[in-house]
Specification:
Helix 5 (123-145) packs across helix 7 (231-252) and helix 5 packs across helix 14 (401-409). The protein is built from 14 helices and 18 strands. The chain is elongated and about 85 Å long. The strands form 4 sheets. It has an 8-stranded mixed beta sheet with strand order 6-10-11-18-17-16-13-12. The protein is 31% helix and 27% strand. The chain has 2 domains: 4-95, Nucleic acid-binding proteins (OB fold (Dihydrolipoamide Acetyltransferase, E2P), Beta Barrel), CATH 2.40.50; 116-417, BirA Bifunctional Protein, domain 2 (2-Layer Sandwich). Strand 8 (169-172) and strand 9 (176-180) form a beta hairpin. The two termini are 33 Å apart. The longest helix is centred in the N-terminal third of the chain and has 23 residues, at 123-145.
Length: 429
């Protein structure tokens, strides 16, 4: 048994592949079968003379996505996709398919999303999901190599982290309401006070009524947190993570990026340090460019795109107004109306991929912020304990996996960057 991704190792030898039929064309007494096995695609050439009339005739009726086992000799052919073909000597039908709904013709997005469980079989979607796999592995390897400890945080939480208006509530037995996590950050701060440098990695949920190309209601985020750390430490770590992930994707997913027709030159030039722009500078630039934005506003998608287009690599925007950020963000001692916060914006219109900063470590001010944000103090007593017992400066960020994948793959919408997207009007399949 062999896999298509390893086919070069079997050149000149007979192998058996367990595959699905992706496409078929025929010319007289020869079938040209494009098949896939989950690791790649290869052309299998079937001659009527070799396999006999019965098998040849049967194969001519196979529909797209028919499952089968095929045996044959691996032959080097520079004209073939991937440089190899399979000369079929035998075939065994495993699962017949008729009237496969996704055909080579153009389909609308809604049609494809309704059949996402089938759409992911296409070469393009496989390339995206393979790149996502590499991104996730690169993230884990980066933090593990840096001495960070994986400390997962709860999905059920008792209160908000990023704002009460974007919570998904869940009945929690007979006595309480729980919420799907918006972020693991608060718990991760506690983990950092125990373990020093930590990260959590998992799904997060935001009940945002947003229909933009950058938003999902369920997405994956990696969140490092560091004790005895500052805003500067956060920025340096973010730069190192992004450059490491980009380099890994370029190294391991060159084929997939070619399938996606991604201009890799846009990625190959990315090196740290990234350009840095203060919020004040960003607002001045956007106003000069004609954007309808006022000081104190958060940056919207078009604002981020316009700003990032000035640079050939991600840009670091820092020190946003405190009023525009979450309750836990530390004020800038030099200008308390600002926060020690940072967003990293990807180029080519992909917007924010990282958001974070230094955490508020003043107990009295944190209590005040909890009140100002109309949050139930009793639900945050455990969090306040972090400021009561062994309080230290600490910082961290969150990086959205789907936005990074969308950027690396050059996708128009993040819905393709996750196997089964959840959006405002989509809960299936």
């Amino acid at each position: 048994m062999a896999y298509i991704e390893d086919i070069a190792r079997h050149a000149g030898h007979t192998v058996t592949l367990r595959v699905w039929l992706h496409n078929r064309r025929s010319s007289g007494k020869i079938h040209f079968l494009t098949v896939r096995d989950g690791t790649g695609f290869i052309q299998a050439v079937m001659s009527k003379k070799t396999v006999g009339d019965e098998v040849f005739l049967q194969t001519g009726h196979f529909g797209q996505e028919t499952a089968m086992e095929i045996a044959g000799e691996v032959r080097t052919d520079s004209r073939a996709p991937g440089g190899y073909e399979l000369d079929v000597s035998d075939l065994r039908l495993v699962g017949q398919t008729r009237d496969y709904p996704i055909t080579p013709k153009e389909h609308g997005v809604d049609f494809l999303l309704d059949r996402r469980h089938l759409w992911i079989r296409s070469e393009r979607q496989q390339a995206i999901l393979r790149t996502r796999h590499t991104v996730i592995n690169a993230v884990r390897d980066f933090f593990n190599a840096q001495g960070f400890i994986l400390a997962d945080t709860p999905i059920f939480t008792p209160a908000a982290c990023e704002g009460t208006t974007t919570l998904f509530s869940v009945p929690y037995f007979d006595h309480a309401t729980a919420y799907l996590t918006q972020s693991g950050q608060l718990y991760n701060e506690a983990n950092a006070m125990a373990l020093g440098r930590v990260y959590c990695f998992g799904p997060t949920f935001r009940a945002e009524k947003s229909k933009t190309r950058r938003h999902l209601t369920e997405f994956w985020m990696v969140e490092p947190e560091m004790a005895y750390a500052s805003l500067e430490d956060t920025i340096v770590l973010a730069e190192a993570l992004v450059t490491s992930v980009v380099a890994r994707a370029l190294d391991e997913r060159a084929h997939e990026l070619n399938v996606l027709e991604r201009d890799r030159s846009q990625l190959e030039s990315i090196q740290a340090p990234f350009p840095r722009v203060s919020y004040d500078e960003a607002i001045d630039f956007l106003k000069d460019a004609g954007r309808p934005i006022e000081y104190g506003d958060d940056l919207g998608g078009p604002d981020e795109t316009l700003l990032a287009d000035k640079f050939d690599r991600p840009v670091v925007v820092h020190r946003f107004p405190a009023a525009a950020k979450a309750f836990y963000m530390k004020p800038d001692p030099a200008r308390p109306e600002l926060s020690l916060s940072v967003d990293v914006l990807a180029p080519e219109g992909h917007g924010e991929i990282i958001g974070g900063g230094q955490r508020l470590d003043d107990l009295d001010l944190l209590l005040q912020r909890i009140t100002e944000h109309d949050l139930p103090q009793e639900m945050f007593e455990w969090y306040l304990d972090l400021r009561r017992y062994g309080n230290v400066p600490h910082a961290g960020f969150g990086m959205g996996i789907e936005r990074v994948v969308a950027w690396l793959c050059g996708l128009e919408h993040v819905r393709e960057a996750i196997p089964y997207p959840r959006m405002l009007y989509r809960l299936t399949p």
